[in-house]
Amino acid sequence: MASSSNGDTKTTHKGKKVVTTIGSVAAVTMVARTILIDYCPPEVRDYLYSGLRDFLDKFSTDMTMVIEEFFGFGQNEHFTAAQTYLLACISSNLQCVKIGKNHGDTNTTMSLETSKSFTDTFKGVKMKWFLASKKTPMTRVYYNEDDSGSSSRSDQGSFELTFHRKHKDMVLKEYLPFIMNVARAVKQEEKTVKLSTVDMSRWKSVNFDHPATFDTLAIEPDVKAMVKNDLDMFLESRDFYRKIGKAWKRGYLLYGPPGTGKSSMIAAIANYLKFDVYDLELTAVQSNSELRRLLLATANRSLLVVEDIDCSIELHDRAEEGSVSNRHKVTLSGFLNFIDGLWSSCGDQRIIVFTTNHKEKLDPALLRPGRMDVHINMSYCTVSGFRLMASNYLGVSNHDAFEKIEHLIGGSLEITPAEVGEQLLRFRDPDVALGGLLQYMDLKKKHEISEDLQFMN
Fold first, then answer.
1. CA distance to 52, 56, 171, 381, 395, per residue, from 59 (Å)
2. Per the database record, which ranges form the AAA+ ATPase domain (predicted)?
3. Distance between CA 454 and CA 102 in Å, rounded?
């Protein structure tokens, strides 16, 4: 019994010694931690942490990739893609996120909280993410991702991506490209389309809030389908364009009388693709060199629009371009060079849209394929266009007045969708609105007959 009692005493003594030792180590650790936080400069602290991490890494099978927020003088695309991807794919598992909203934006923006860990799984492999933030020794100026300006920062965020080192090739060749693709798709889906115009030889942008879509366009269904199919095929043809050695761009010519929906078609294309719109008023451009600077400043995935190209500026004949008077003007060959020459390859996924009321006035050099690939006739209002407008404006798909209205539209009366819309906007009651439209069409028909009689006389 005595021997058993001595053994218990020794065990208890050893246990107390272990607890005392653990307490002492914990106390020393807390003191050391306090000293590091309160008295050591951030640079020394980072150096010590880095050394400790390097020491522990020698015994670990994990690998950590550090993705810093800025790379060179601009934002690191991998960092912004990772932030977008993590918010989109694992946000439902997050306990804390930051939110904000800029003036003029329609959506609230979420961002990740720093010093937090996130776990993702890719092809059965666990990927551990950690978002850190540290102060930098000096304030630096970084240029924004969308070239909209710059910002001064005295701190820098970074992601630490940790995984088993045997998956290094998969992370570099599959996981990171996958993140980039998902982030690109998310950003495109959430993108606010911008409209840019030339102001003092620079692009000035505002939010593009035009409500036109292909569903609201009063044109023939087969024309809509053709345009949408052509746009879809263009978006998916990057490798094809590279294979055949052509710049990844597409040219559209919208022609027809005023009021037939050319501007609405442009807005519908922009909203369908979520491409930014650059409205180029050639009369505001002083020379070929200025035009070059403006076009080089346009972004990828954008629409360059030149409306009323037949009358917006006099594009001088190439035989006269060497004259002194034309050296400070936009010339035809200079303009063609930028839309179809070597300069046209400075960018991807560009769509160029020209509009005109008089196609016959355009120089043949502008009309050839490669410059204006698709010619779309924006015609007067058709029967199907009228029915769509009646449904959109008045919420009716049939009415007693339809037969006479459609008879006039299908006959010799030339009436534009803008004229029809103007009449339908005047009243919300279908009977009154359609009656007013019918009266307007009768007056227009009589006026056209009177003009024809005067011309014959």
1. 12, 6, 21, 76, 72
2. 248-382
3. 60
Do 179 and 82 contact (CB within 8 A), yes or no? yes
Q: What is the dihedral of CA 377, 380, 384, 386, to 10 degrees?
A: 140
Q: What 3-state class would DSSP assign to 304? A: strand
Strands 276-279 and 194-199: parallel
Q: Within 13 Å of residue 168, how many CA atoms lie on the same side as its CB? A: 7
Question: Does pLDDT of 353 surpass 90?
Answer: yes
Q: What is the pLDDT of residues 155-177, one digit of tens each?
A: 678 899 999 989 999 999 999 99
> What does the alpha-carbon distance between residue 146 and residue 124 come to, in Å, rounded to a whole number?
35
Give me Rg for the CA atoms of the chain: 33
What Cα–Cα distance (Å) separates residue 86 from each residue in 125, 133, 158, 454? 16, 17, 14, 72
Going by DSSP bridges, is the β-strand pair 350-356/249-255 parallel, antiparallel, or unpaired?
A: parallel
The residue ranges of every structural domain in the chain are: 62-190, 194-377, 383-456
Which residue, 299, 298, 305, 255, is CA-closest to 280? 305
Q: Name the nearest CA neighbour of 247 among 332, 337, 341.
A: 341
The answer to whether residues 260 and 286 touch, using CB atoms and an 8 Å cutoff, is no
Q: Does domain 194-377 have CATH number 3.90.226.10?
A: no
Q: Is the pLDDT of residue 147 over 50?
A: no
DSSP for 167-221?
GHHHIIIIIHHHHHHHHHHHHHHHPPPEEEEEETTEEEEEE------TTT--S-H
Q: How high is the pLDDT of residue 374?
A: 93
Which amino acid does the sequence have at 69?
E
Examine the pLDDT at 394 and tell me if it is beyond 80. Answer: yes
Q: What are 199-210's pLDDT values in tens digits?
A: 888 899 998 989
What is d(CA 131, CA 34) in angstroms, rounded to the nearest whole number? 23
> How buried is 440 (Cβ within 10 angstroms: 0-12 exposed, 13-18 middle, 19+ buried)?
middle
Residues in Cβ contact with 331 at an 8 Å cutoff, skipping those fewer than 6 apart: 288, 315, 316, 318, 321
pLDDT at position 418, please?
Answer: 94
Q: How many CB atoms lie within 10 A of CB 145?
A: 12
